[in-house]
């Protein structure tokens, strides 16, 4: 099994989208990319910790490739808006790929460049591609939120 970490706005809907991908074994929401140890949701929402809301995806690479997960990542959000997805505004909602190894970084940069050149988006992709730092699991009430509430916040 391998892990991937993506920030694409509010983690509830992002988790829901990845949990439905064949080959994804587990999803979990949390925070990464910041400077505060053990941040809470309330801390992250202050825009002072530097953390992004993220989804950690555990997947079977014999069923779904990292590149396929990257494609899903770019399809489920607008990667051209800075620190914003829909009504959610703040650095915690930034578009980011947090890579765990060099192969993931190279794959993310290659696909980002390909998408930028494709003309799919009218503006440049601003997605950060950065090395994963300490990951902190979000509070339990955030885990599998769409399943718990039986609704999706995404209309894709």
Largest pleated sheet = 6 strands, mixed
What percent of residues are in strands? 25-35%
- Calculate Rg over CA atoms: 14 Å
| General form | globular
The chain-level structural class is alpha+beta
By DSSP, the count of extended strands is 8
Residues in helices, as a percent range:
25-40%
Strand order of the largest sheet: 7-6-1-3-2-8
What features would you describe in this structure?
There is one protein chain. This protein has helices at residues 11-19, 41-44, 66-75, 102-118, 145-149; strands at residues 2-8, 24-32, 52-59, 84-85, 88-89, 95-99, 128-131, 136-137. With 156 residues, it is α+β, with helices and mostly antiparallel strands. The strands form two sheets. A six-stranded mixed β-sheet has the order 7-6-1-3-2-8, with helices on one face. A two-stranded antiparallel ribbon has the order 4-5. Helix 3 packs across helix 4. It is globular and about 40 Å long. The two termini are 28 Å apart.
Provide tags for this entry:
globular, single chain, 156 residues, two-stranded antiparallel sheet, alpha+beta
Summarize the structure.
Helices cover 29% and strands 25% of the residues. With 156 residues, it is α+β, with helices and mostly antiparallel strands. The strands form two sheets. It has a six-stranded mixed β-sheet, with helices on one face. A two-stranded antiparallel sheet has the order 4-5.
